[in-house]
Amino acid sequence: MWNILYTLFLRILLFFGVILSGEAHADVGYFWHVSDFHYDDTYGKTGQSCSFPVSHPGPFGNGSCDSPMQLIEESLKSMASIKPDADFILWTGDNAAHIPTPEFSLKRNLYMINAVTSAIKRNFPNTLLIPSLGNHDFFPADYTNGTESELYDSVCQMWSAWIKDPEQINNCRRGNHHRPRLPDHSRHYECRSNSALLPYPGNHHRPRLPDHSRHYECRTNSALLPYPGIIIGHVSPIILAIMNVGLILPSFPTQVIIIGHVSPTIPAPFVLNWFYSQYQKRYVKLMTLFSDLIIAHHYGHEHKDSFKILQRDENGSEASPVFLAPSVTPLRGIQPKGEQGTRHNPGVRLVKYDRQTGKHLNYRQFYTNITEANHLGRAVWRELYSFQDAYNVPDMSVSSLRKILKDMAKPFSLSMLKYCSFYTVTPPLGEVCSIKQQGAFWCAAQLTNVQETEDCIFRYIHGFKANVRSWFCARERVVCKNSKSQNDRKS
Ligand SMILES: [Zn+2]
Ligand SMILES: [Zn+2]
Question: What confidence tens digit (pLDDT) does each residue in 148-185 have?
């Protein structure tokens, strides 16, 4: 009798515990975000993507070259072992290697996209894939005139397992609206693509997420919002306007997740505008105008890990959170003066979200160290950080990002040091960023104009120097002309 009462008592406690913790109503789901595989089929042989000669490339990759297939397979296998039943995968493009155009061809370009597509299918045969092409999926790279019929034809065929419906596959090939359906009867999605992948911000796919997502959807923008590296065959302001209108159709759902290859935000620490400024301004304006409908943006392209707030102005009005996933390729690239770019590890990202609202709750960033993998003969994938835990925030919302950025406003703050390390997909034990880099991270996380970002960095550095000087003057009790501490003493 006492046992029964005791059990009943425990169950009541458990019931109220669950209610109070909110777990009873939680419908938590997960999705992967993976980007920039950059497969080099010549790795270990002629190494056409290698920016510097490599005498002994390891089997899992080398920082001077794009990815061997073994690294791509290992990254997907690790994803499948960590979370095989994710609701969907965001795949934000750049599958071909960085190979100079004279040595490359559309045929090889398509071969690389197909190789990556097959690798994803092998590891996630039943998972919804939401793709976006990158500037390195086109041939020549960075070039589009909107009429790459062979490219679209081949890519739509490769992705037909996800699109499924023959009529929709044909639509996809023609670059018209297409509505692919997944094999799984309970998981189908709709994908609308206007005139295939013209380089316009409004040119998007509209894949329908699993059935539980009644209140939000996912938009994937064209990879090729024009930026100075891109040669545009034809840009019509009228088409651009029409495409933009597509974003405000009456059927627009309550909430949207935006995905694409290139973010309209400013990269850091190398401050530049990826886009022709007129398109970037327009895209930012559009995105901020509808920010109350946008849950989050997810992009790739920069090969590094970062987050930003896309907002109308510095006051923070009309804002939405932006997350950039690091690449799988470990290629360091070449900096403007010819030296090797920053070392970074390959990474994959698992996002936790509320299935009913689409609200992003947390993400876990995973990475592998290829130097270690080459030494061990196997790749070990570890969790680099959990967003919630690392930054001590409740979720991935704009208000959480603001809280982190408030801390990052202080140079060498804990949040800043973490952001700096995570940027290169590295545990926060390595080199500390310079004050200039910190200023760039902080300013570029909030601004979308190059000049304003440069001015902001100048103020960040100047403010830091003034504080150091002030501290020095106060501590050493020396007279420091024009210093804040001197002024403070006078007052
Ligand atoms: Zn890339
Ligand atoms: Zn790219």
Answer: 678 878 887 888 777 666 766 776 666 443 333 423 32
For the chain, list the domains and their CATH numbers.
25-411 (3.60.21.10)
Q: 347-354 and 28-34: which strand pairing?
A: antiparallel
**Which ligand has the minimum distance to the alpha carbon of residue 135?**
2
* Residue for token pair 């930054």: 391
E strand residue ranges, 6-99: 28-34, 88-91
- Rounded to a whole number of angstroms, the CA Rg of the chain reads 24
Q: What CA dihedral angle connects 297, 299, 304 and 305, to 10 degrees?
A: 20
Q: Give CA–CA dist 148/280, Å, rounded.
A: 23
Residues lying with their CB under 5 A of ligand 2, a single-atom ion: 94, 134-135, 301
Q: How far apart are CA 171 and CA 72, in angstroms?
A: 30
Tell me the ligand closest to 49's alpha carbon: 1
Question: What is the CB neighbour count within 10 angstroms for residue 112?
Answer: 23
Q: Could you tell me the pTM of the whole model?
A: 0.82
190-204: b (≥16 Cβ within 10 Å) or e: bbbbbbbbbbbbbbb
Gap from CA of 96 to ligand 1 centroid (Å):
9
